[in-house]
Specification:
Helix content: 25-40%
Structural class: alpha+beta
Shape: globular
Radius of gyration: 29 Å
């Protein structure tokens, strides 16, 4: 009998997963769905009446300062900050580099007396850390995600941190909601899935119920969330800060980084593939560019609003879910930043660097932006949790100016400070510095308010700027956004989630909502919930193309097999090097490949950087197939070589071919709708949908073909460089050619 009972118990354990230990753990298991209380409480058991708004001193018409006395908000943020203990290996994924910042002149003096923004004789050292947000340290670089863009300025007046992103807005208006949005987007707690993605129920459930996130979701589902490179993305301070000039006048300000190379992205299929083929793609790209002398560069701009104009707009300028459209508030370019040195050791520099939004210098200050107010508390608290109370003494974090205060002790104290450690003291050691001598000065803001939890009227509108963003995209960018939303919502298996969000989209644009709903099985709208007036602004990536076309740091793969034309290849490599592009030989094997006229195995060979299987077209910006009869025939017999070209075509990349390489495209690759050079004895160039071909490229062709990156130039190199400078040939996708090729 006992044996039979034991068998039944064993069967029950196998079927339910129930064991004595599981039963023991149930004592500490809480199921919120069973409603053990009637609602939210603090950790000490007090019911919470509002978990969405930090207590402020506000008159109800505009935000006011967030109050430190709000124990509910501080507990929520503090508990969130300390959810992760320092781990031995796994930290947020990032990459970093050193550089410098300078302003061009002193024209910002009318806004601020901060020398870092007004003294053109200064060169200010900087350190930048780029990062993804959702994934762990081991996640891939090319996931769809917001990218962190945090800059530490080591000024002579102290450290100034701009802790920004590559997207100018955020998901939430009030910092008290930060634990909620991050909990929602992180891997789901029951199975720790997915990693490095927002394509799951919890994220879309949250944003579907939190319409203030609608504008940010549009950005996150756009091409902005899959950048080609850290070097090709904008940076934004996100929050509204303030500037104060020598006359004591205050201005509201937003900070902008605009990349010299333009703003460019990957295609989604490409991003997915790179995630598996080279998870460190962005890290390597940053290091490669700096090592090759193609130093990443950003122009620094400010948007400034005088205090008297704070209420002149139909949105609240302190709302972090809103941009300041450039036609209303122009961006003034006042300086630049260049990254010119890689790190010596990843951990003590990239991992231990710590940023804090509260780190500003005299002449720069804070607004009552509710998200910024909470970030100022949260970032400092987070760094203490991660690195200890003396985190600012770590080499990468410590200022370059002298530091003196009466802070003492704590774990990992590095300094030995003699004598007195308090103020006032009998020897006047370490006195405060008057504002007239450089001490930090706060703006004397007048406040007349009531202590309460609320959001002012302008904070209640959530869709106008989501519409503005969508309307401002090009047709291909809109198509990519529809595809991204469809991909993400198709990964949500709870109908409530994807049906809710497709309904929300109808507040932004009827056709957008309809297309996505059809794709994911959502609620197909019959009419728009809100009219779309069609307003636009400058947010399309195409609007940030460089003033002068460039191929600087672009990666060109030259696809070869034994029997290729060596003279042609060497001439091409020299020409593109002059434009600071890099060229890579991709052959049937890594190492020696034999050009035409050389015996395979015994002749004089040429070194290939990678073989067809070792790298893929996704790692490069463009492909060239040189001439050579045997070489072209060998490529035609290689399915992988054919796939290389078709995949590059599908990703809208520039493709070039010469001589028999043109025949390879025509007969083996068979690109649809593309016109190719027909006369293999002529060096006349044919350009069609980003595919550049010519029959020959001899010494005379090379001499006449100086690198000039401009449309309509003669010569293969110049035409190819122009197509490459455009980043992608989006007409290829728009006209349906991409969908005709399997890749």
């Amino acid at each position: 009998m006992s044996s039979a009972i034991g068998s039944v118990k064993q069967a029950l354990v196998s079927a339910t997963g129930q064991t004595a230990k599981v039963a023991d753990l149930q004592k500490n298991t809480i199921d919120p769905a069973s409603k053990p209380t009637k609602g939210l409480t603090t950790d000490h058991g007090v019911f919470i009446s509002d978990t969405d708004n930090w207590l402020q001193a506000t008159n109800g018409a505009r935000p006011g300062p967030s109050l430190l006395e709000d124990q509910i908000a501080r507990e929520k943020i503090m508990r969130f900050d300390h959810e992760r203990i320092p781990e031995r290996v796994v930290h947020a994924r990032g990459a970093g580099a050193h550089g410098y910042f300078k302003v061009y002149d002193d024209k910002a003096k009318k806004y601020t007396y901060a020398p870092v923004l007004t003294d053109p004789s200064r060169i200010t050292p900087t350190f930048v850390r780029f990062s993804t947000v959702q994934g762990s340290r081991g996640s891939a670089d090319t996931v769809r995600d917001v990218r962190g863009f945090a800059t530490k300025f080591y000024t002579q007046e102290g450290n100034w941190d701009i802790v920004g992103n590559n997207i100018p807005v955020f998901f939430i208006q009030d910092a008290i909601k930060f634990p909620d949005i991050i909990h929602a987007v992180k891997p789901e707690p029951h199975n720790e899935v997915p990693q490095g993605q927002s394509a799951h129920n919890n994220f879309w459930d949250f944003v579907g119920l939190q319409p203030e996130s609608a504008h940010m979701v549009m950005w996150a589902m756009s091409d902005r969330a899959i950048p080609r490179s850290y070097r090709m993305m904008q940076g934004f301070g996100v929050n509204t800060y303030t500037l104060m000039n020598a006359q004591g006048e205050r201005f509201f300000v937003k900070f902008h980084w605009i990349p010299e190379l333009g703003v460019h992205s990957l295609m989604w299929d490409e991003a997915l593939k790179i995630g598996g083929q080279d998870p460190d793609f962005h890290r390597k790209d940053l290091e490669e560019a700096i090592t090759n002398g193609a130093y990443p560069k950003w122009f620094f701009g400010i948007q400034v609003i005088p205090e008297a104009r704070e209420n002149d707009f139909d949105f609240d300028i302190l709302d972090a879910t809103k941009i300041w459209p450039e036609e209303l508030v122009p961006v003034e370019i006042i300086g630049e930043m260049v990254l010119n040195r890689t790190v010596d050791e990843y951990f003590p520099e990239v991992e231990q660097v710590a940023f804090c939004t509260a780190h500003v210098v005299p002449g720069i200050g804070f607004s009552d932006d509710p998200l910024l107010q909470g970030r100022n508390f949260s970032y400092f608290d987070t760094q203490i949790s991660r690195l200890g109370v003396n985190w600012q003494q770590l080499p990468i974090n410590r200022p370059v100016c002298p530091v003196l205060n009466h802070h003492r002790d704590g774990a990992m104290q590095h300094k030995i400070t003699k004598d007195l450690n308090y103020w006032p003291n009998r020897r006047s050691i370490g006195p405060p510095v008057p504002t007239t001598e450089g001490g930090y000065a706060e703006y004397p803001e007048k406040i007349q308010a009531i202590k309460q939890r609320l959001r002012s009227a302008k904070f209640q509108e959530h869709y106008n700027q989501a519409q503005l963003f969508y309307n401002s995209l090009t047709d291909y960018e809109k198509a990519h956004l529809v595809s991204a939303l469809s991909f993400e919502l198709s990964h949500c298996d709870d109908p409530v989630v994807y049906q809710t969000y497709t309904k929300l989209l109808n507040n932004i644009d009827f056709n957008l909502a309809k297309q996505v709903a059809i794709n994911v099985g959502g609620v197909i709208p019959e009419k728009p919930l809100r009219e779309n007036p069609g307003h636009t602004t400058r947010v399309s990536q195409l609007a940030f193309a460089p003033k002068e076309p460039t191929i600087k740091s672009r990666r060109i793969a030259i696809l070869v097999a034994d029997g290729f034309n060596l003279g042609e290849v060497e001439a091409l490599r020299a020409a593109f090097k002059a434009g600071m592009a890099t060229t890579w030989i991709i052959g049937p094997r890594r190492g020696t490949v034999y050009p035409a006229g050389q015996e395979v195995g015994s002749g004089k060979g040429y070194s290939a950087d990678h073989h067809y299987e070792g790298q893929r077209s996704t790692m490069f910006d463009a492909i060239i197939i040189p001439s050579g009869a045997k070489h072209a025939q060998a490529l035609a017999e290689s399915g992988r070589a054919i796939h290389w070209v078709r995949e590059a075509f599908g990703h809208c990349k520039a493709i070039g071919a010469l001589g028999e390489g043109v025949a390879f495209l025509r007969e083996a690759v068979q690109l649809p709708g593309v016109e190719l050079a027909s006369n293999l004895n002529s060096d006349n160039v044919t350009t069609s949908y980003g595919v550049v071909t010519a029959g020959k490229y001899d010494v005379g062709s090379a001499i006449a073909d100086t690198l000039t990156i401009k449309q309509g130039e003669k010569g293969f190199v110049s035409n190819f460089a122009y197509e490459l400078s455009k980043h992608r040939c989006w007409e290829r996708e728009k006209d349906g050619l991409v969908s005709k090729v399997a890749f």
